[in-house]
């Protein structure tokens, strides 16, 4: 995400959320060293975007939206796939995000991508008293591979 993307991002944001982020909130977040903004493009237009934080042991998805004309075309799925590809078996093995209790579409979307609701966060949002679900995606061992302690095996 670069500066010239901001107007299209703000347009998608306002069409997607009742309590949309302001330009100042986007800029403040993106100035943080560990905060990354990515856009998905289709025919020289922004089809969607996501903003996430890179933390020591996990990624934290802060915001994700797809342009209304591009919904149900796989854009969100591709963006989450890109985020999942950034997980590693050694360090960052999970993605966390919060979803408004009333945002059933987002809950269903993330569940379809193997995210699980792990807790309820009471009065989570500053703009309302609405609760949020904390959702988690956990990286599994690739291909069912289980690490083997070869030294212990050789010693027996």
UniProtKB/TrEMBL annotation:
CDD domains: NAT_SF (cd04301)
Classification of source organism: Bacteria, Pseudomonadati, Planctomycetota, Planctomycetia, Pirellulales
Ranges for domain N-acetyltransferase: 1-140
Gene3D superfamilies (alphabetical): 3.40.630.30
Annotated gene: rimI
Keyword check for Transferase: yes
Keywords: Acyltransferase, Transferase
Protein name: Ribosomal-protein-alanine N-acetyltransferase
Signal peptide stretch: none
Domain of life per record: Bacteria
